[in-house]
Amino acid sequence: MKMTSCDFDVIVVGGGCAGLWAAACSADEGASTLLLEKASEVGDRVVCAEGVGARGLRSVIEPSSEWIAATIDGARLYAPDGKWYEIEQPGCGFVLRKDRFILGLAEIAAKRGVEIRTSAFGSLVSLADDHISIEACVDGCREQLRARALIAADGIRCEISRRAGILGSLQVNEIFSCAQDTVSGISVDTHFVEFHFGRRIAPGGYAWVFPKGRDRANVGVGIVFDTRQSDCASEYLARFKIERCPESSIERAIVGGVPSVSNPFEGYGRGIFAAGDAARVADPISGAGIVPALESGAIAGRAAAAYSRGRLSLRASEEAYRSELRHLWRDRTLRFAIRRIMMRASDSDLCRLLARSAEFFAGGNRLDGDPIGLVRFLIRAMPDVFRVVKHLVKV
Ligand SMILES: Cc1cc2nc3c(=O)[nH]c(=O)nc-3n(C[C@H](O)[C@H](O)[C@H](O)COP(=O)(O)OP(=O)(O)OC[C@H]3O[C@@H](n4cnc5c(N)ncnc54)[C@H](O)[C@@H]3O)c2cc1C
Is 38 a pocket residue for ligand 1 (Cβ < 6 Å)? Predict the structure, then answer.
């Protein structure tokens, strides 16, 4: 069969951390790669609390000091009964300057040969057997482009995959609904993150304080909606701030969602590979999505390049993509089950859970260590709460 000529081997839609890293990895594999970002600059409208585990980030990329607002040496966990637990773990994480981090990823991608177009809205036009047509709309001017493969990294709305009929919409209880203010004039320990739990503070989720300097922090709330509750995340945040930092002033306010699903995107898509929130790979327990976005970006970038350069058939490249994603998330069913426990836990269960978790970490275990070790410990310590996940873990 004669192959249709294409403008690029791979087009990436979305210039967040998933799309930029996918594009960098695709170009690294020799594929001519174009990235379309609808914002006027990459890193322009970061919607994120910017916290990241050091080990996870370093497994993908060594962070530049330019990207880091604070190095984290531990966490304080606040229980609904007013008790709190300090978990000291020097160097366990970072609060990023995510706008600079994104710019850094863009520089790496550009150095590897990725063409990055900003103010460029990408949409799917059609899928043919040997190519994909994408429309790039820049300042009202429309251009049709052809690529062998497409990476959908367009964030939680997943418009590319939904338009292709590959993904449906998220249910409301599959989203952590978040509101966050970056504030100044707050008293914080510059090297400790705070997590606050309880149904009054954040039903089904938690409130956070991530320091970004001496008197600055990202203060936010993530909740999971249920039909009996009428307040939105912003209202929980307003109440939390009255208690935690009444004197602070807001520099920037954002709202957004993080997908929290048991089955991420698996890419049965005729040359469409998804990454990041568009692949719904964020951690279902914590909502952390930066490292999963980078990891899935690398997987999507490599698979799209292998297919578009003719090194693998479409079927083989999709199989490689799926099996790498599955390997990455081999404990996802367990994580999702734990998320459901957390969502339903009463305040007294949460108090016990935090006290027990603190014991686990006091025993020398790492916050960024093996989460299954903590689950095993909790199954033994709180069999009444954790019995529903017992069959998923060898205790
Ligand atoms: C309030 C909040 C706090 C969070 N805090 C943390 C945290 O502390 N740590 C953590 O690990 N995770 C956190 N997350 C999750 C994390 O931010 C995301 O999982 C991660 O950023 C996903 O990256 P992404 O590249 O997939 O998507 P995004 O960052 O959403 O990037 C998608 C990009 O695609 C662009 N785009 C969309 N559609 C188009 C189009 N049609 N054409 C061109 N461009 C398009 C958008 O402009 C955007 O730049 C948080 C999320 C929220 C909402």
Answer: yes
